[in-house]
Design a protein that fits this description.
alpha/beta; Ribosomal Protein S5, domain 2; 565 residues; single chain; 57% helix
């Protein structure tokens, strides 16, 4: 392999610290002569491209032109690169729970991309007049935009090379080994490189010893890795202004109540709400409950945790009916999944909002009915739960709310299997086929229904080879989320090794499914000690459903069948 020849442009020294010497006598002489390296202003980050044998380092700057380095007028961006910039803007609100400025403000103008340095196996300087095209600036664009919108500088020792789609998912790039080899030669001050989680192992093989490789799967994880506690500090500062605090409190509540399309990582929401509760002084009862509600909902999404209390007396009555319905739906779901509020307290409130025929229910009321059915299922009433979920799914279909059909249909199929109701399972299969032909039944919802139908079939007949093949196909599909894949591998019966590896790497979703697989095996083997051991671990993962089912008198084998995940 030929040695890399670095070339550093004059603009590199004023743009940021990336190309400056890292340590040693040369670094000391450089600082004596030029002073400390410049700190990249908010909205600025470094990015990498590869063309033939040359890797180039670029400064990406969004916002006012004063944030750009001195030098030429910047590179021309091709259509794919412009598309990556647009996707970064769409994904940002899904990765950061509370924004300080408008994303539109940050994306209204294309970023300025300036050549800084290159490293090549041949003695040439790249032609920087060529348009930059491709998606590999995606994650760098996302960090630059987050930095600009949040007014929080990206540390100068960080560089990112990964794609980023509009949902916030981080993907692999080409030429990774070449890029990492070049970074050590042309950017010695870079100590952290963010790559797609799928390329982390590859990156670690090629990175210099002083460079830490950070694999991320979503923009939220990248933002957390880069900005960390500084964003929390910014949130606290923003809350010092009463008007801003009210606006941010409303943002947390709205996000928890309505959800966020494509939101993947609820951990920042959970941390942000807790920080606001701890640090914002003189919160009124209304603001405090809204933040507590947001924290509980986020905790449920993260790990089925969080404590949700009923609102203060009179609080629900003071809300518009649509808000009351949505808050109660979340509280019912929280009761089912996390154990609070208690069943006896929340069920009557839900019933008071559903005192009319199901055919006259709004979409929000149908979602509340679905949450009630989930609570019925984990409190020992699977027959009632199955019937209600079927009614809800058909009611959504009747009003063409195709995007809402998947969840109740999946529960209808799963509970039909739990009950051994072959006819109900067949009806669910036919409803799934009809929904797929409707045109509005898209996204990941139908794949969760596929998994639920597989579960139902295997609960009816554990020897169903076709259902196991379908489960294995779902479990080995890398395009599906981990929650779906790990559950499918459990039901496929052949994914134990993969579950064990992921659990050892700290994946809680895989850990839960591994415990369930062990529980299945212990029940089949008739090993009471192994059953009880698995149940203790399962109760730590999900005290809500396990506690509900135990109080309902369910045996360990019943819990394994009725378990909702």
């Amino acid at each position: 392999m030929p040695p890399l020849r670095p070339h550093v442009a004059d603009a590199a020294w004023s743009a940021g610290p990336w190309c400056w010497p890292r340590e040693g006598q040369r670094a000391e002489r450089w600082r004596d002569r030029h002073g400390p390296p410049p700190v990249p202003p908010p909205g600025t980050v470094a990015g990498l491209t590869v063309q033939d044998e040359t890797t180039a380092l670029w400064c990406i700057a969004c916002g006012p032109r004063r944030h750009a380095p001195r030098g030429d007028g910047g590179a021309t961006l091709g259509p794919e690169t412009r598309g990556a910039w647009h996707d970064a803007g769409v994904s940002l609100p899904r990765a950061v729970p509370v924004l300080w400025r408008s994303v539109h403000e940050g994306t209204a103008q294309l970023p300025r991309v300036t050549y800084l340095a290159s490293a090549s196996g041949v003695a040439v300087v790249p032609d920087v007049r060529q348009p930059i095209d491709g998606p590999s600036f995606g994650l760098a664009f996302g960090l630059a935009l987050a930095s600009r919108i949040l007014d929080c500088a990206v540390p100068g020792d960080v560089i990112a090379t990964a794609t980023l789609d509009a949902t916030g998912r981080v993907g692999p790039v080409g030429g990774l080994a070449q890029k990492l080899r070049a970074v050590g030669r042309m950017a010695p001050s870079v100590r952290r490189v963010l790559v797609a989680a799928a390329q982390q192992a590859e990156a670690q093989r090629h990175a210099a010893p002083h460079v830490e490789v950070i694999g991320v799967s979503h923009a939220a994880a990248a933002i957390d890795a880069v900005f960390g506690r500084r964003l929390a500090a910014r949130l606290v500062e923003a809350g010092d202004q009463v008007e801003r605090r009210e606006e941010l409190t409303g943002s947390f509540f709205r996000l928890a109540l309505m959800g966020s399309e494509g939101l993947v990582d609820w951990r920042p929401v959970r941390r942000g709400a807790r920080l606001a509760l701890d640090r914002w002084k003189d919160l009124g009862a209304d603001a405090r409950y809204r933040l507590e509600f947001a924290e509980a909902v986020a905790a449920r999404h993260v790990d089925n945790g969080g404590r949700a209390d009923l609102p203060p007396p009179g609080w629900l009555d003071g809300q518009p009916r649509p808000i009351r319905v949505q808050v109660v739906a979340h509280l019912v779901q929280q009761c089912a999944d996390a154990g609070t509020p208690v069943v006896a307290a929340i069920e009557p409130i839900a019933a008071s909002l559903l005192d009319h025929p199901i055919a006259e229910s709004s979409p929000a009321e149908l979602r509340l009915r679905g949450a009630v059915a989930r609570l019925l299922a984990v409190t020992g009433r699977p027959d009632e739960a199955r019937r209600l979920q079927e009614q809800v799914a058909l009611a959504f279909a009747a009003i063409y709310a195709d995007q809402d059909v998947a969840y109740p249909l999946a529960e209808w199929a799963r509970l039909a299997g739990v009950l051994g109701d072959v006819e109900a399972l067949a009806r669910a299969e036919r409803a799934h086929d009809r929904a797929r032909s409707s045109g509005g039944y898209r996204g990941l919802g139908p794949r969760y229904v596929d998994l639920a139908l597989v579960k139902g079939a295997l609960l009816v007949d554990p020897t169903d080879a076709q259902a196991r093949r379908r489960a294995l196909a779902l479990g080995t599909d890398p395009t599906l989320p981990d929650t779906l894949r790990w559950s499918a591998l459990r039901w496929a019966g052949g994914g134990r090794a993969a579950l064990e590896r992921a659990t050892a790497e700290g994946d809680p979703v895989a850990g839960r499914q591994l415990v369930l697989a062990r529980l299945d095996e212990a029940v089949r083997a008739g090993d009471p000690a192994a059953v009880e051991s698995a149940m203790r671990v399962l109760a730590r993962y999900d005290p809500g459903p396990v506690g509900h089912l135990r109080r309902a008198g369910a045996s360990s084998s019943d819990i394994a069948r009725l378990y909702p995940y």
